Amino acid sequence: MNPDEPLALGxxxxxLLGRLVNEYAVSDPSVLVGPGLGRDAAxxxxxxxxxxxxxxxxxxxxxxxxxxxxxxxxxDVACLGAVPRWLVVTALLPAGxxxxxxxxxxxxxxxxxxxxxxxxxxxxxxxxxxxxTRPVLVGTLLGxxxxxxxxxxxxxxxxxxxxxxxxxxxxGTALLARELxxxxxxxxxxxxxxxxxxxxxxxxxSVVKDAAILLDTxxxxxxxxxxxxxxxxxxxxxxxxAGCGATLVATRVPILEPTVAITRHLGLxxxxxxxxxxxxxxxxxxxxxxxxxxxxxxxxxVTECGMLTHPEEGFVLHHDSPGSMPxxxxxxxxxxx
Length: 337
Prior knowledge:
It is a single chain. By secondary structure, this protein is an alpha+beta fold. It has 11 helices and 13 strands. A 7-stranded mixed β-sheet has the order 8-10-7-11-9-12-13, sandwiched between helices.
């Protein structure tokens, strides 16, 4: 790749990001989990406590952006076995389009969402700037890890089964329904679009409860919150962090009906669409039945849809026959928003 060419929208290419992390990360003995591919949060030993730290922005959503911000950050904290506790937010707001009432609404929503999730909003920075054309919220969330609970990324092993909770692309489906309400309703009907928009809250984009149930059940070797680039990107990140390949069976991947309708109409691949709301897990084969049962008892569907493999087997996606797993250089969302 020409280093002077503009980069595509979305995450940095994995090869570039991996090189940058390896070259520029600074080591510290108190850091238990540092930066790396497939590592979405850091873990730091502070005295007798272990803190998990996560930062992520919300750049696509305008409607209910505070909810996206809190849950997306909390998900990655929970995937390391931590309990989300303290949030700091930077809000960059567009010049000429920001009112006092709009800012107060953002603060009110953040307060209510944090309170509902047991998270304290402890600080941040708010600025009206010409550098953005729409509100951009950036969250930094800290969590505490109970003794013996830290799940270090990269723990998956060949033969581990890939599990998905609820359904994929919940976040992307809800966001599309809220940002493109009228054009989608004109074709698909308002009932479909409203059902898609409600996915933001039911089942919601939080996987904190999912992670706690799976970890309590045991047999989990890795957890990942597939966000930008969808489930396929999440599988690649989980596998690469563990030095594995992966096989995914498309017909077993759970996709909710509103997601099917909207992605089919827009010509998007749900496997590459923002997927907060589903938790991706790698589990020991003998633990799968207990994990599925524990999820069902809590009202959370857990579906087995693939497995980690030896690295030389690469990344395989089964439809009617095996093929190469696609790579999404940017989230499918960027094709329409």
